[in-house]
UniProtKB/TrEMBL annotation:
Keywords: Hydrolase, Membrane, Transmembrane, Transmembrane helix. The gene is EPHX4. This is Epoxide hydrolase 4. The keyword Transmembrane helix applies. It comes from Nothobranchius furzeri (Turquoise killifish). The chain crosses the membrane at residues 21-45. InterPro entries: AB_hydrolase_1, AB_hydrolase_fold, Epox_hydrolase-like. Belongs to the AB hydrolase superfamily. Epoxide hydrolase family. It holds the Pfam family Abhydrolase_1. The lineage of its organism: Eukaryota, Metazoa, Chordata, Craniata, Vertebrata. Residues 98-344 form the AB hydrolase-1 domain. GO terms for molecular function: epoxide hydrolase activity.
């Protein structure tokens, strides 16, 4: 009898797991279909209003002068032996000083950290990387090359190539996700973790599944699962959707912050208009549903989480919930009036809060190898 009950319980458990999986993937694909239908309506309306301009966009061939501003640092390249990929990064500050490594988000590149490169180079060796698929770094086209394992290993390889065995790690948006994961898997390599507008991956998963409002704000996750169509929608009308991400009233840099200059915006369009650039950026999303939930969740480094109050994509309630997964000092700062693009929107406030956090505890000496 005991064995029969055991087998029955095992069967019920497996059945419940399969039902959950079917429900999960039904949600994913169903929402993908819905987002595709909405996008098709937008495309049709754009063709009606601008029949000649809709399918026109310009590949920027010459980088704007701001990308060669020597005050930001030196452009460098590294080819990682294990992966074979070449990474581009901009570095400033003296070699041998503590390493501060910056990881950008979507749809950005190293340039999003320009205010922090200038600010922290006096005390750190600051390095802002073009992550795989972005900017001047290599661009694998297969979605399998953008799994969490590969992205986390990229960070480890870059830190070691730079001659360090640990760093202060700073990430925003998708760079924040990779920073969380890196701190989880390589706690000995992260002296302090600073994340901007990105919840712990487990918090995001749990919260989004329980809050339809966040699921709606994350609709781009589902739309980007489609092949080729998202690239088209981001390109039409000369990358109008990308421009709106940074400049519109709803999603762009906040009115209290620093607006992007025309040259800054052209820097983004230069990077993202290159052949294959949008596919590389979107491939981060195309692997995300098969990578969650996480097997390991806890962060053992001190964490600073900075959050823009006016983030159009992520609900603020997730920020405090991150505390559940941190086994060390946790500091959360909500910045009033700031948008999702926090380090560009309110750089002075961000830099001040980062300095305060960096000086806590053991101070700067703790960063040296």
């Amino acid at each position: 009898m005991a064995r029969v009950l055991h087998n029955l319980l095992l069967f019920v458990t497996r059945l419940a797991l399969r039902i959950r999986l079917v429900g999960y993937w039904s949600l994913v694909y169903g929402y993908c279909a819905l987002c595709a239908a909405v996008a098709l309506l937008k495309l049709w309306w754009s063709v009606v209003l601008r029949p000649t301009a809709t399918f026109q966009w310009v590949v920027r061939e010459t980088p704007p002068a701001c990308l060669n501003d020597t005050s930001l640092g030196t452009h460098c390249y590294v080819r990682i032996k294990e992966s074979g990929l070449r990474f581009h990064y901009v570095a400033a500050g003296e070699r041998g000083k503590p390493l501060m490594l910056f990881l950008h988000g979507f749809p950005e590149f190293w340039f999003s950290w320009r205010y922090q490169l200038r600010e922290f180079k006096s005390e750190f060796r600051v390095v802002a990387v073009d992550m795989r698929g972005y900017g001047e770094s290599d661009l694998p086209l297969s979605t399998e090359n953008y799994s969490f394992d590969y992205l986390v290993t990229d960070v480890k390889d870059i830190v070691e190539y730079l001659g360090y065995n640990r760093c202060c790690l700073v990430g925003h948006d998708w760079g924040g996700t990779i920073a969380w994961l890196f701190a989880i898997h390589y706690p000995e390599m992260v002296t302090k973790l600073i994340v901007l507008n990105c919840p712990h991956p487990s918090v995001f998963t749990d919260y989004a599944l329980r809050h339809p409002s966040q699921l709606l704000k994350s609709s781009h996750f589902f739309f980007f699962q489609l092949p080729r169509f998202p690239e088209l929608m981001l390109s039409i009308n000369d990358f109008k959707a990308l421009k709106a991400l940074f400049t519109s009233r709803n999603t762009g840099i906040g009115r209290k912050g620093r607006w992007l200059t025309a040259e800054d915006l052209e820097a983004y369009l230069y990077a993202l208009s290159q052949p294959g650039a949008l596919t590389g950026a979107l491939n981060y999303y195309r692997n995300v549903f098969s990578s969650l939930p996480l097997n390991h969740k806890y962060v053992r480094s001190p964490v600073l989480l900075l959050w823009g109050e006016r983030d159009a994509f992520l609900e603020q309630e997730m920020a405090e919930a991150c505390r559940l997964y941190i086994r060390n000092h946790f500091r959360l700062n909500i910045i009033s009036g700031a948008s999702h693009w926090l380090q560009q929107d309110q750089p002075d406030i961000v830099n001040t809060l980062m300095w305060t956090f960096l000086k806590e505890g053991e101070g700067r000496k703790s960063y040296r190898n």
